[in-house]
Amino acid sequence: MTEILTTQSGPILTLSFNRPAKMNALTRGMYAGLAKGLNDAAGDFGIRAVVLTSEGDHFTAGNDIVDFMDNPPTNESSDVAQFLGSLLDFPKPLIAAVKGNAVGVGTTMLLHCDVVVAAPTAKFSMPFASLGLVPEAGSSFLFPQLVGYQRAAKIFFTGESFGPDEALEMGLIAEIDSDAVAAATRIAQQIGEQPPQAIINTKALLKARNHDAVAAVMKAEFEIFSMALQSDEAMEAFMKFMAKKGK
Question: What confidence tens digit (pLDDT) does each residue in 49-62 have?
Fold first, then answer.
């Protein structure tokens, strides 16, 4: 069973996290599958939009900590870095449907999506500092730009979670729908009916102001993240997290 399900309906490609028994915690193989899916879709003129979603009750619990500790992403050729690069450079509309927990990269990847629909069960969190780490995926730039410095600082520093109503008010999501996947698919289909080059050009214009700045921030984040991963502080935080999870 593949842990990233790939399905195509007309011009719409859906990439779905498929590890529901582990709350879709992301492994190195899943990052590689996502990067390949996005890169292939970018080069396929038949695909007009991509929907990111998940099987089961949760979007993703973030990184699989055991896999993460066994295969730390400490260089830019890692599967994690490849996925983040594919997100940043994806030229077509990227729509996400979120239900349940969206932890860490589960929230930061949404900052690169063009439209996000959340179910009422959605719960967002970015507990990087709590794990002895730093924000990634350009979120240290994109999130304060979206919500303001102080609100972003409070969320990053405390690791607190927030629900769909707050996410909607922040502008992190576009709408709340009890069937987030169906709503996201409808939006993707509407986009798929538009003139495709006009859509690609419009996205390029919307992203142009930030693209190079985000790329530079992602590079700096990755370097600091890699150093933090190898620190005693992070190791102690990971051990506490695993002990808590085991109770």
Answer: 999 999 999 999 99
3-class secondary structure per residue, 130-184: HHCCCCCCCHHHHHHHHHCHHHHHHHHHHCCEECHHHHHHHCCCCEECCCHHHHH
Specify whether the CB–CB gap between 65 and 105 falls below 8 A: no
Q: Cα 9 to the chain's mean position, in Å?
A: 22
Set out the domains of the chain in order of their start, with CATH numbers: 4-179 (3.90.226.10)
Tokens 């038949």 belong to residue: 46
What pTM was estimated for this model as a whole?
A: 0.93
Q: CA-CA distances (angstroms) from residue 56 to 7, 104, 155? A: 16, 18, 27
**Mind listing the pLDDT tens digit for each residue in 170-183?**
999 999 999 999 99
